[in-house]
Amino acid sequence: MPAMTQTPDSPFAHGLPFMKMHGLGNDFVVIDARAQKVEVTPALAMRLADRHMGVGFDQLALIEDGGNADAHLVFLNSDGSTSAACGNATRCIARFLMDETGRDALTLTTEHGALQARDMGGRLTSVNMGRPVLDWWKIPLKVEVDTLHLPIDGDPVATSMGNPHCTFFVDDAEAVDIVAFGPTIEHHPLYPQRTNVQVASLVGPDHLRMRVWERGAGLTLASGSSSCATAVAAARRGLTGRKVRIDLDGGTLHVDWREDGVWMTGPTAHVFSGVLTPDWLSQGLPDV
Fold it and tell me: What share of the chain is helix, strand, coil (3-state, %, to 5)?
């Protein structure tokens, strides 16, 4: 069955414009749906995510009309599932909208709530990802447990930044086979909605090295919400203060857990813009 039907009078008869962006290698396809409503099915998202037969991304983001906010953002993972939060994509889109409007401050809404974005100068963009959720039933976890010490081998910490996280503190994050380890924890029965997985090691005062396995996307070079969750977990454990540097496979983010929420700052890139052809859009899933 086709993922999207094209007719001569279809608004996408000439294709569907998109942008390719990334934050520290955490990459996104972004579709501006403010002027024209765009429906992206899970099947279409998975086709787009294919790095050989589509475009490729960790997450897909739709920019929609924000009503009283500057824009509303919707996120899908590369496996077609939805996500309430995506920190690096939010920063990328905030930078795009700041460049478009000439403004240095924006309000963006997501399923997680309203998020404030700021231009920090030097092409650095900061987003307040909101207050962390630490209650077990809100993360959510399946049963009541101490979120600071989960009953999972490795003694991880549970946090939600609009999406669930499981953070392991280890001696050497580089030494962990996260490709083998990540899927097991992502699907752990304690997390009914699956979870993002981080392994982090302390390399200096308020300085962490972190690697990420993302729910619905797999191994990623960076993750904004994971960085925020790890910073919160490290501060709760007393390993760091509330303002930390986090080195990821794709680069460095700075996270500051303040009273009004968790602020994340780093670079972004708008790599290119393109158009999905009507022919490609009309095709169904490839035979397997």
Answer: 20, 40, 45
Q: Are strands 71-77 and 105-110 parallel, antiparallel or unpaired?
A: parallel
| Binned average pLDDT, 10 residues per bin, the chain of 288 residues | 43 85 98 92 96 97 96 97 94 98 97 95 97 98 98 98 97 97 97 98 98 96 98 98 98 98 98 96 63
Total residues belonging to the chain = 288
Integer CA distances (angstroms), 196 to 8, 78, 118, 247, in order: 42, 14, 26, 17
Helix (H, G, I), strand (E, B) or coil at 53: coil
Is residue 152 a contact partner of residue 191, using CB atoms and an 8 Å limit? no
Q: Is the CB of residue 117 less than 8 Å from the CB of residue 98?
A: yes
**Region of residue 206 (left: phi > 0; alpha: psi -120 to 50; beta: else):** left
Q: pLDDT of 183-216, one tens digit each? A: 999 999 999 999 999 999 999 999 999 999 999 9
Q: Domains of the chain (ranges plus CATH)?
A: 16-129+269-282 (3.10.310.10), 157-259 (3.10.310.10)
- Name the nearest CA neighbour of 198 among 187, 206, 222, 190: 222
Cα gap 187→195, rounded to integer Å = 7
Among candidates 76, 93, 82, 158, which has minimal Cα distance to 127? 93
Measured CA to CA, the distance from residue 135 to residue 115 in angstroms comes to 21
